[in-house]
User: Fold this.
Amino acid sequence: MNPDNSSLPEPGPDCADYAICARSLVKRYKNAADPALNNLSLDVRQGEFFGLLGPNGAGKTTAISILTGLFPPDSGTARIMGMIFRESEHEIKQILGLVPQNIGLYDKLTARENLTFFGKLCGISGKKLTERIEQGLEFARLTDHARQPVATFSTGMKRRLNLAVGLINDPQVLVLDEPCVGIDAQSRNLIHEQLTAINQRGTTILYTTHYMEEAQELCTRIGIIDNGRLVEEGPPAALLQQSGMYNLEELFLHLTGKELRDS
Ligand code: ATP
Assistant:
């Protein structure tokens, strides 16, 4: 059951076939007793909808931060479509989208102004920018609220706009850190439908969530991490069949234990 990280192939030319390829990532925050990532290795193949699951403090956000170039690992390598940030930051930013856990919008700006700002940050301009903004507003079902400051939005509206911002550069690889936290069933349903459609059009998705039923519904493959290491990976149905567990929540608790994580 427990995959040995070392059994994953070393990054070589074949790593270029993966959308995301992480090898032996280690990250220790200052003054922390234990490393947040402890030799984490992870592959996400092109076209997959990959769910990254783990208890609080398991290392999901740290992994995503490294994979999207927010900060480097202490050691190990992370590749996006075969490229590493140290060498190809500009190229990676052209093809990578990030939807962060904390909503990263400017409250005083309107929905359209936020999309404009982040589009320009990605180097998009002119007609292409106008098109992407209109697509983003439509995608988030916010066309009628385009001129409203984000401060007036509900959490669901903010989450939808946060997602549209992550898609402004039409990424090949989209990374989402708990994009459905604190929203109602309607916004969640819309986001699920939109992400499924984007994935079916060819975008690779890496998705973290604490909602097991969400992972079971959306993901073609999942990885469970705990204490900064991958403890299980595979397609949800295959993992359930192998383990004899009834659902992902049962499997998750079996692998990570029932002890509270109040570090
Ligand atoms: P959650 O599900 O609660 O969001 P997570 O799986 O995303 O958790 P991380 O946020 O990556 O986990 O945290 C991994 C470990 O690193 C935890 O022990 C956390 O307390 C610690 N940690 C995270 N960020 C920092 C930081 N900036 N400084 C010190 N320790 C940190």
Remarks:
- The pocket of adenosine-5'-triphosphate is lined by residues 29, 32, 36, 54, 56-62, 263 (CB under 6 Å).
- The radius of gyration is 18 Å.
